[in-house]
Amino acid sequence: xxxxxxxxxxxxxxxxxxxxxxxxxxxxxxxxxxxxxxxxxxxxxxxxxxxxxxxxxxxxxxxxxxxxxxxxxxxxxxxxxxxxxxxxxxxxxxxxxxxxxxxxxxxxxxxxxxxxxxxxxxxxxxxxxxxxxxxxxxxxxxxxxxxxxxxxxxxxxxxxxxxxxxxxxxxxxxxxxxxxxxxxxxxxxxxxxxxxxxxxxxxxxxxxxxxxxxxxxxxxxxxxxxxxxxxxxxxxxxxxxxxxxxxxxxxxxxxxxxxxxxxxxxxxxxxxxxxxxxxxxxxxxxxxxxxxxxxxxxxxxxxxxxxxxxxxxxxxxxxxxxxxxxxxxxxxxxxxxxxxxxxxxxxxxxxxxxxxxxxxxxxxxxxxxx
Length: 370
Fold this sequence. Notes:
Layout (H helix, E strand, L loop, with lengths): L2 E4 L2 E8 L2 E9 L2 H20 L10 H15 L2 H18 L9 H11 L3 E3 L2 E3 L4 H20 L25 H10 L4 H11 L3 H5 L6 E2 L4 E4 L9 E4 L2 H13 L20 H11 L9 H12 L4 H8 L4 H5 L6 H39 L1
Antiparallel strand pairs: 1-2, 2-3, 4-5, 6-7, 7-8
């Protein structure tokens, strides 16, 4: 039999042009799987016979490289790096497959495989988060959209694939956690973290600070980068940030304040390993991301009385709605708010009782006079 069940899904296997075709139909119904197999056979026969007018379909390995060349010209460097990393994972799973061979069922298998520790080919793969899988699926979807624009007759197998649900990972660190974390960080991470906590800048913005954009007289740092006008903003330095940047500028051999250890002419690229190690050494649980230092700044600013329009400008947001996603009061501030509400209710009840007493007294006095 050319179709068989693997788990809850039916697969088909047959030979075409001397090549073994073994794929998931993406269906749980045997009849639907047989129809999918028949359609797959016909598509392959038409392609081999040259009956299709479309361009010859390339293999995924080759086309993903072509896609990256296009992405390098069309996207920002950070976006290109993301697609490049995703393509490496996708090529390991879809290696040797023709672009039109990849089905929805195979994409579903990719989703599950990435969420589990298993061996692909000659290497062990570590399980990754649903968020990481979703980013790879977004890249795969874009690859097929680009293929359609290149006039390849292919259908997008990601079209009906459900992405993993992404829950908010926002984390606000406490003053105690901040102290423990900074005590265990190495340089330049310690200075980068301090700048983020005092200015709310994004990690990438701190990495790209140039000495030419610092004004130590006016005590400001200008960020000329960003997709929006709001992101390109001028921020005021705190005393500690002023001291950190002044010291680093004086000793810097580069135009960047935080230059790469490997090449002083380039900015630092990442401090993720140093951050993860510092969190482990500080024994902070649950763990937090470097980006959460920006969330912490936003929440502390609101608790300190900074109004939302001003905070939106400081964070480089185009709308207050975006800023609201960053604001997460700490538990002690929630308790303080509940206490204020309770005091207000008590004061209101006392005032109401006092009014009633005054009215009763007035009525009694009038009755006595009469």
